[in-house]
Amino acid sequence: MPEGDTVHKLAAALRIRLCGHITRGLKLKRLDASALVGCKVSNVSSHGKHLFLEFENGLVLRSHLGMYGAWHQYPPTEAWRKPVWQASIVLETDQRVFVCFNAKEVEILPAQGYRLVDARRRLGPDLIQERLAPDVLVGRARALLGPEVPLVDLLLDQRVAAGIGNVYKSEVLFLEGQPPLAPLAATPSPVIVALFRTAAELLRRNLQGGPRVTRPRDDGRGRLWVYGRAALPCLRCGAEIQRRTMGANRRVTYWCPDCQGSSGGGRTRRPP
Ligand SMILES: [Zn+2]
Q1: Which position among 17, 223, 244, 251 bears the catalytic label?
Q2: How far is the CA of 58 from the centre of ligand 1 (A)?
Q3: Closest of 158, 199, 153, 204 to residue 175, by C-alpha
Q4: What's the whole-model pTM score?
Q5: Is 169 a known active-site residue?
């Protein structure tokens, strides 16, 4: 599942292969891409889970992979590993074909236009690329979200800070010993800061490549603390890991009832 670390690595890889190259062909699902054909790519950047392909003529192609999106690249004559109808973006250069399958969002923006400014303003600071100012972060959280909003929704809200997806959400709540359904109003500001700092650390630690890891790499007990471990014993206390869909987006959350609170919203106890 693409999270901020995945998109950051993707932007770096695409930057190397696309910058300075001219688009010989570009097809977008449901959008006219003719304004970008024959243009040189000037930069590829990311912000949270959004990817921006910037062109020399001042236009920007913004995409968001959502839960199922993926970029592939192929030599011009090679068969694709997914069906053509799943292609959201097909970008051809002289040497390669870059295909983005199953994107959640694709749009063309003017670089200096109000929509790009607006798209970036709606995103909080990028947890990988920007330093977190604790008071600004807490201020954004409390100003943007109601007091009853649970922590699962706080962490996924890209307006507060950009980059956390569903895997890191569960992992960060476990590492900070927080009940997933604890309301924002009952969560002290230092805890909010700690949650985002831990998320930023994990996102940066996973930029090296290989599968996503939130645990010590060398103990042979798995890569993640709770995500995907429903009904298995907690790696800290042995209690059975719980799994339930929670929050406004009905996303799956994994948690330890002993380390984080039995109902997901109960008592708070930091893991030892
Ligand atoms: Zn536990």
Answers
A1: 251
A2: 51
A3: 199
A4: 0.82
A5: no
